[in-house]
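for the writeup, i need someone to sanity check this before i put it in the appendix. the sequnce is what the collaborator sent (i think, or maybe the updated version? ugh). structure was predicted straight from it, no edits. if anything looks off just tell me and ill rerun, i have time this weekend
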Amino acid sequence: MGYLKVGSREYKVMLKTAKFTGDQQQLRKQTARFWQDFNKAIADHVFDTDGALDEIDKKRSIVFWDTADHCLRTNGYVFRERHDFSNGNDDKQREVTLKFRHPDRYLAAGQDVTAADGIEEDAKFEEDIKAPFQSIFSLSNKIPLAPEENLAKVSDILRLFPHIKEGLGGCDPETTVTPVGNYKARELVIDGSDFQLGEDPKVEAECAIVVWHDHAGGETDPEVVEFSFRYKNDDDEGEFIEAYATEVVRRAYAVFQILQDTMGEWVDPQSLTKTAFVYSQPQIVTPVAR
């Protein structure tokens, strides 16, 4: 596959869910309030900040698929299905993402997550950084999925991504896959803000808050809330060149530490990440309705 360049670096912290209860209007007010506090905290460490972090950009449902004994995750893979319901139709935009994650950059980059011939794909190689500072490299591939496409066995995933068969170890293709924990998240992605880390070249970190509610429950008591900021480095043609300047990285590190050290009103160091939360749910073999 050749040498893969890191397309982006994304820093993530989990936030206190109790701070974001209420309807969407209340939620947007709270994310804007978080942004105001965040602005004050990082003002001396960045060039400037823009926006209000109060725009609901995406509405979608999320389901993770795996075997009862979590064979995919055991081998480093996660397989996630999303439905975009921003326009009110939960089945109109259906997509799946296969992702391999590992702290060893070269092990992650060495996987082959290429889709089967003829399938439109969107592959990415990224670095995710979790608190306090844990770097995980992620090679992922996203593909569209027809509404009638069935996911019932490991073989259905292999049909879409045939090159991961060897990487699945003892995962029998005939083993049933079901939604992990029978859990379906209702996700809101709130963005509309950034801060500047570099001047020449100009580097901006895009910010977002991701809020998860139980799809089968209400929409006022979130179960997981995550704040992230992401920056990248590419040329005029959009090709990643992975030339992250030392001062840019230093500022990003400082901002990440400030989040953890001074924003205790908002940050929850005990909260599970989104994927860990899903996999903490008791595994039930009955699929959820789409």
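The longest strand covers residues 49-66. The radius of gyration is 19 Å.
thx in advance!!
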